[in-house]
Amino acid sequence: MKLFGLLFLLVINNSLADAFCSLRDPVSQINTLYPNHESYISFVKKISHQTRKIVQENLPNNDLHFGELGQHTLYVVTKKQQAIGYVHVRSEQSDWGLVEIVWAIDVNFKIVDFTFQRCRSPEKAELIKAEFKQAIIGRDFELLKLYLAKDGISANHTLLSQINTDSNLVNVVLRCALKTLLLTQVVWHDELKQFTQQKP
Amino acid sequence: MNRSFGYLIFCLLSLPGAVFANSTDNLRWSVDNSVRLNINSTNNITSRNYFIGLDSHKVFNDQNKDVGYSVVQLYYTKLSNQIPFPFMFGHADDEQIIIREAHYNFLTNRNSLIPNIRIGHFTLPFGLEDSQDTNGRLLDYGHGKNLGTKLDWGLLANKVHKHFEYKLSYSLGGKDDPKSKDGSYIITARISSLSHLDLNFGFSIYKAKLDNKARERVALDVKYHLYQWTIKNELAYGNTDNNASSYWLFEMNRLSVNEQWKVYLQYIFEDNHQQMQSDKKLVLGTRYSPDNHWDFSMQLKQQFQHPENNDELELLQAQLRYRF
Question: Which residues on chain B are in Cβ contact (under 8 Å) with A49?
Answer without folding.
Answer: none
